[in-house]
Amino acid sequence: MTTSSSTEKPNRGRILIVDDERIILDLTGIILKNRGYQVITAQSAADGLKLIATEHPELVLLDYMMPNMDGLTALKEIKRHHPDTYVIMFTGKGSEEIAVELMKAGASDYILKPFNNQDLVERIESVLKLRAVEMQNRALLSERERLLAEIADWNRELEARVHEKSEALKRAQAEIVQSEKLATLGYLSAGMAHEIRNPLNSIALFVQLIKSGLDEAERQEYVDKILKEVDRIDAIVRKLLDASKRPHFEISEVRVDRVLEETLEAFTPQFRQKRIQVVQEVKSIPPAIKADPMEIEQIFTNLFLNSIHVMPEEGVLRVQLDQEDGYIHVRVSDNGPGIPPENLPNIFDPFFTTNSRGTGLGLSVVLRIVKTYKGKIEVEKSDGTGTTFSVRLPLAA
């Protein structure tokens, strides 16, 4: 087993010659070295396989008939473990069956012994040119796959960014729409207050005068109903005013945990009547914020009222308090039937209600108050297992 190289010609590639005949190795080596190839030789297939593993030649000239391991077996090993190494077979048998068998096994060409020197060189150059083209094509395909994968990654990243920006735009648009609804409600309720409250006062006064001079039980019943409706209309007007603009308020240090506790305590009779279990979870007690305690109380009063209305008897009301990312975070959860998906976009709209006895102003008032304190309110979850409202109030409210 020998290795040699030519210093007279430029290196045109590395060729391994594997043949058990010394004269073939020497003759072929001289021819190839004179044409600028680096030549490696081996006299057995086993030695040749070892040299391929360490020297990585571009081409192997492999004898078909050799002791121990024949050329066909060696060819199959080369193509299995070293696919970038091309093989030209030497054979003294020129049968068509052998040629077909060699080409099927992966040989690039075969040369009959004895061979013509010029024909040998031309065959070698042809196979090396073919190898160069195929290696270049393989590199181009690999680069193409890499670029396609990179483009796919870019597309996925772009889609993720577009989705993220779209969701942010939707949230911004929703907040703008809510603000516009509140502004519209403000104009409506202010006008209604001026147009309706004065007549209501007059109606209430006249009905009270009539009531004082009547004895008939039936008329007394009608008068009571009139007064009841007057009170109801007056309550609606007050709620409209509360929803549209901020009434008189007094800012003080407010502990949200205490407001929650007091509000829940105020609903004790309703909880007992429907046998509702209240579960409180205080993950952390936030510091006091500057706010109007009545406004903060109204947020939770309206949310609790909604939950009590939709929950079945022996329902569960969960109230969770936490502090995170500069916000006081309160979750109010019930195990009612949930809000239908088609109603979710409208629940904060003034007058929107699915309760025949409701005014549809409760959540509008909550929205107005939360926005006043630069907070956020949203439906975090709503399905057949219940609804969860999430309220975030900034600590620097």
From TrEMBL:
Enzyme class (EC, first level): transferase
Modified-residue entries (4-aspartylphosphate), positions: D63
Record GO terms (molecular function): phosphorelay sensor kinase activity
InterPro entries assigned: CheY-like_superfamily, HATPase_C_sf, HATPase_dom, His_kinase_dom, HisK_dim/P_dom, HisK_dim/P_sf, Sig_transdc_His_kin-like_C, Sig_transdc_resp-reg_receiver
Catalysed reactions, semicolon-separated: ATP + protein L-histidine = ADP + protein N-phospho-L-histidine
Entry keyword Transcription regulation: no
Keyword entries, A-Z: Coiled coil, Phosphoprotein
Pfam families per UniProt: HATPase_c, HisKA, Response_reg
The Histidine kinase domain, residue ranges: 191-397
EC number: 2.7.13.3
rRNA-binding keyword on record: no
Ranges where the Response regulatory domain occurs: 14-128
Coiled-coil segments: 130-182
Lineage: superkingdom: Bacteria
Protein name per its UniProtKB record: histidine kinase
